[in-house]
Design brief:
Largest sheet: 6 strands, mixed
Strand content: 15-25%
CATH topology: Maf protein
Strand order of the largest sheet: 2-1-3-4-5-6
Structural class: alpha/beta
Number of helices: 5
Length: 211
């Protein structure tokens, strides 16, 4: 049976971009979002072999440490020509400095090594797995994806991560060229395009009530 989310909710991330997106998505609902950093929570080792497992690890760790319900996302870019890489290692490719320009250059370099220059050779998708965990062990999990093509050079300064090189199917602009409202907002204001938005809408329908 689904469990409703209300009151205080810990956002189990230390990634400023993800935190901003999650708070934006949660804004219309009866939830007080608290960042893990505000509670001085550590980040657990992400030892899972899938996005879903890593999201659960982060959410359960934060729920037990804070004694509050906790919400975590694990997401990343999967490139078809690279056999699904970087996948769950997407953030790690940016290194300890979180240099995603370097990570995008690494992806582009590997595509060029494989002679992947045409759009049909550069298919990729973003995946987002969301988990809400309660201190008593209950969890709710949701997952979604968005398909697209990788472009070079990167375009746009909005978003974060690999957004500037990812052009979603059916659109001529990258995520880096779109506003947050276009990526996450519901029609008519936005497209509700992003992987995180699509997973969040599933979560909201099941577990959240609007203000």
């Amino acid at each position: 049976m689904r469990r409703a989310i209300a009151g205080r909710l810990v956002i189990a991330t230390h990634n400023a971009g993800k935190l901003a997106e999650m708070r934006e998505l949660l804004a219309p609902y009866r939830v007080e979002a608290i960042a893990a950093g505000e509670l001085h929570l550590d980040e657990p080792p992400e030892t899972g072999t899938s996005f879903r497992e890593n999201a659960r690890i982060k959410a359960q760790f934060a729920a037990m440490a804070s004694r509050l319900p906790a919400f975590a996302d694990d997401s990343g870019l999967a490139v078809e020509a690279l056999d699904g890489a970087p996948g769950i290692h997407s953030a790690r490719w940016a290194g300890p400095e979180k240099d995603f320009r370097h990570a995008m250059e690494k992806v582009e370099g590997m595509l060029r090594e494989r002679d992947a220059f045409e759009p049909h050779d550069r298919s990729a998708h973003f995946v987002s797995a969301l988990c809400v965990a309660w201190p008593d062990g209950h969890v709710e999990e949701f997952e979604a994806r968005v398909d697209g093509t990788l472009v070079w050079p990167p375009r746009g300064a909005n978003g974060f991560g690999y957004d500037a090189m990812f052009q979603p199917d059916g659109f001529a602009r990258t995520f880096g060229e779109m506003s947050s409202e276009e990526k996450h907002g519901l029609p008519p204001k936005g497209f509700g395009l992003s992987h995180r938005a699509r997973a969040f809408f599933k979560l909201a329908e099941a577990c959240l009530a609007r203000r």
